[in-house]
Amino acid sequence: MRLTLRRLTWGIISAAGFMALVLVMGCSQAAPAGGGSAKATFKLGTLPLYDVLPWAVGDREGIFEKAGVKVELVPFRSAADIDTALLAGEIDAGQRDIIAALLMNKDKEQAKILRTALAIAYTGQPVFGMVALANANVSGVGDLRGRDIAIARNTIIDYVTDKMLLAGGVNPKDVNKVNVPQIPLRLELLQGGKVKAAVLAEPVLTQSIGNGARLIVDDSASKVGQSIVLVSTKAIKEKPTVLKSLLAAYEQAVDRVNANPEKYRSLLVEVASVPADVKDKIKLPKYPKALVSSHADIEGVNKWMVEQGMIPAMLPYAKIVDASFLPK
Q1: For residue 32, what pLDDT is reported?
Q2: Is residue 247 helix, strand or coil?
Q3: What is the CATH number of the domain that holds 157?
Q4: Is residue 216 predicted with pLDDT exceeding 90?
Q5: Are residues 314 and 247 located together in one domain of the fold?
Q6: CB atoms < 10 A from the CB of 244, how many?
Q7: Most-buried pick from 65, 114, 262, 328 (CB within 10 A)?
Q8: Res. 38 pLDDT band, cuts 50 70 90
Q9: Domain coverage including residue 191
Q10: How far apart are CA 317 and CA 173, in angstroms?
């Protein structure tokens, strides 16, 4: 009898425990108190460039929160650091470029372009420019033969530099490219006279001109300047619904910035680390609507990278770009 009672007692306890577990699991999936809902987390690696503004607006004005996504903007000082963090799974995506996308996919698929952040071909505004100090006796690209130019190797800056040099009649092999991945250090070396020229992106480009540098050439003629949102294949696989909601919300942030850019001048200065003395000199960009890199964009960089020995062969467009997450 005692054995029967013991078994019956444990049976009741087990049943009660099972019901409690079901209730806990149910509560964990239900809306929390106050009518809200659990928000998915998405980490984006950022650089102090124009690209970051719509993300900052979406964060500060609660656009992402309303879409059910908690976006964490993780600042980095160089593109290389973003790549390392992305491949290590420390972030879900990063402000990057086509070259990074191709490099990450040359052996196996690790990340894809889901959105174009800035593109001169669509906005008409330069993304990159080559500057020299006013007293460096550099009035044109031709004066840079045999001289040092600070760039970021194996990035879109490297690609754009070659295009600007060739457009000016200079063989890229006739200049000395100095690899300086960190944006602040590249500017510091230029201003300290350690290099004759540097290739920079906005708003650092305008900052350098405000501090006495002279614009030699920008990417207006080549129209190859472009930055993108690069997302890890892990995040694409594990967070497809989050990505769709996030990019739809990002579109709203872009609309707000484009509709009233002056409203966000101070925010851009803050998130892009622009000194206050050049705040009013910055030309606010226009951000492209729901866009991904075109076949021609990818092909041009593909060919250049093969020529440079960075990849063994051209990679297919579908391996690099995924437009399916953009709002229709």
Answers
A1: 36
A2: helix
A3: 3.40.190.10
A4: yes
A5: yes
A6: 15
A7: 114
A8: low
A9: 128-218
A10: 29
Residue scoring higher pLDDT (39 or 49): 49
- Residue 277, classified by CB atoms within 10 Å of its CB into exposed (0-12), middle (13-18) or buried (19+), is exposed
Average pLDDT on 116-135 reads: 87
Last residue of a domain, one of 218, 242, 273: 218
3-class DSSP state for residue 143? Answer: helix
Residue 30 lies in a domain: no
Say yes or no: 107 and 46 in one domain.
Answer: yes
Distances (CA, A) of 316 to 75, 112, 320: 31, 12, 7
314 within 8 A of 145, measured Cβ to Cβ: no
Judge whether 201 lies within some domain: yes
Check whether the bond before 327 is cis (ω within 30° of 0): no
Residues 233 and 116 both lie in one domain: yes
- Report pLDDT digits (tens) over 134-176: 888 898 999 999 999 999 998 899 999 999 999 999 999 999 9
